[in-house]
Structure formats: structure tokens, C-alpha cells
Amino acid sequence: MALLAPVIAFAYLGGRWSAAGSSPEPNGCVTGMERSTAELFRRISPSVLQIVAFNSHDDAKTVEMKTASGFVWDDSGHIVTNEHVVRDANVITAWLASGEKVDAEVVGLERNYDLAVIRLKKKSSLPPPIPIGSAEKLSVGQFAYAIGSPFGLDQSLTTGVISALGREMPTENGEVIRGIIQTDAAVYPGNSGGPLLDSSGRLIGVNTIGYRLADFHGALGFAIPAELVKRIVPELISSTHVNQNDVR
């Protein structure tokens, strides 16, 4: 008798792809590591959002759409994502893991470090903030987990290890971000702005796509370290800009 492979169906919901047919709970014969990974995803994934940004050009005939990821920073509805995603956006929509669609607005942008804060205009039933960890004591070989919306496929998990530390990444405006984390956890277009996590589910970095490495996405993942995120994001929330002397 021929065996039929399981089919995963995807539905396109207004700028958002949603997977159907997956089980929310691990079952069958699984290892301790698999259970830990499944539990990490269960706890953290509700706090990861899909971001859809629209930019209408001057002629009003073309609309550029960018899809990316973001995550809950605090209980006030602030969401962290990448600057290159929401820059010049006329309309920003966030999709929660529950399927709820919420409009958002830009709070602050930091182009030199590709970080942005947006705020949800409606904050009912907001998932909890992701716990913030540290990148200072990471070691090459540690497990790393990325949650996001690669190619618009929301609530996707990729796993890997920390491949290298202290990388430098050039940005499109000629600056260099230092201390970048390199991982082999796949970071595809759409993962930008999502969290890179340690095995406890703590934020160790914000995933980003290297502008000069864009043709090689997937094989190498890069993340802005948590230490930079912890310095920059509060300043963006309080003043919409960053004092460069505070982060260099």
C-alpha cells in the first residue's frame, strides 16, 4: 500500500500566510531536546508578530509592500523590528499569532543600527514581552533559535547554533554595526526584526539581513546583539532618536 506524505496547507490572509494542519503540542516519541524546543516555541511564539509595511510612492500608482517580523517589548504596545522594514512606510499592520490584525505607528527609527520601535494602536490582549538576555557571554556552539515570518510564513521556527561572534556588518548608509552575532539558524527575508533566542527563550539578538550579503540569505544568519538593543530601544521610546555616544 502506498504511503501518503502529510500535507501542510497554507492560506493567504491579506498579506499574511498562515499554516494549517500543524499540531500545537508535541506528541509521540520525542527526545528531551525536542520537548525543550517545542516548549520554547510554545512560550515565546505568541510574542512574535508579523509586520507588513506599505509605502505609496509619489505617483500614487505604485505601492511597495515589505513583510518582516517584530516582537513585544513591553506592556505598552511597543514592538521592536528592523529600521529598513518600516522606514518611509505609510501604513503599518501587525498580525498577532492569534490572527488578530492591528494597525501600528512608528515611534522611533535608528538607521545606523537597523532598529526601530513601532506601537500598536490597539493593545487589548497583548502577549507578554520577550525576556531580555545577554550576548556578552555567548559561546560559539551554543544553540540559537529564530522565530519569525520568512517569506510571509508566520510563526516559523528555525534552529541552529552560534556560528561566530563579534562580526562587523556594513549598513546601506555607510555605517558599521559591530558585535554582530552570526548563526546558522536560517534567517530568510521576512525574519528581519524577529528575535534570536538562547535555549532559555531569552532574547540574545534581533535578526537582520545584511545588505551586502542579501544574495546569501538562509545559509548565514545575523543578529544585532541584545546589549545594543537594550541601549537603543529605550531611547527610541523616550525621545525617538539615539545619542550615538551612548552606543559606540
Layout of secondary structure:
Blueprint: E1 9-12, E2 17-20, H1 32-44, E3 48-56, E4 63-72, E5 78-81, H2 83-86, E6 91-95, E7 101-110, E8 115-120, E9 143-148, E10 156-170, E11 176-183, E12 195-197, E13 203-208, E14 221-225, H3 226-239
Describe the protein's architecture and organization.
The chain has 3 helices and 14 strands. It has 248 residues and is mainly β. It has a domain at 143-231: Thrombin, subunit H (Beta Barrel), CATH 2.40.10. The strands form 3 sheets. The protein has a 6-stranded antiparallel β-barrel with strand order 3-4-5-8-7-6. The chain has a 6-stranded antiparallel beta barrel with strand order 9-10-11-14-13-12. Strand 4 (63-72) and strand 5 (78-81) form a beta hairpin. Residues 1-12 have low confidence and may be disordered.
How would you concisely characterize the structure shown here?
Helices cover 12% and strands 38% of the residues. It is mainly β.
What key phrases describe this protein's structure?
single chain; 248 residues; mainly beta; Thrombin, subunit H; six-stranded antiparallel β-barrel; six-stranded antiparallel beta barrel; 3 helices; 12% helix
**Strand-residue proportion:** 35-45%
Helical content class: 10-25%
| Rg (C-alpha, Å) | 18 Å
- How far apart the termini lie comes to 64 Å
Average pLDDT for all residues: 83
CATH C-level class of the domain at 143-231: Mainly Beta
Number of H/I helices: 3
Unreliable spans: 1-12
Q: What is the N-to-C order of secondary-structure elements (H for helix, E for strand)?
A: EEHEEEHEEEEEEEEEH
Q: How many individual β-strands?
A: 14
Largest sheet composition: 6 strands, antiparallel, barrel
Global shape: globular
CATH homology-level superfamily of the domain at 143-231: Trypsin-like serine proteases
CATH architecture of the domain at 143-231: Beta Barrel
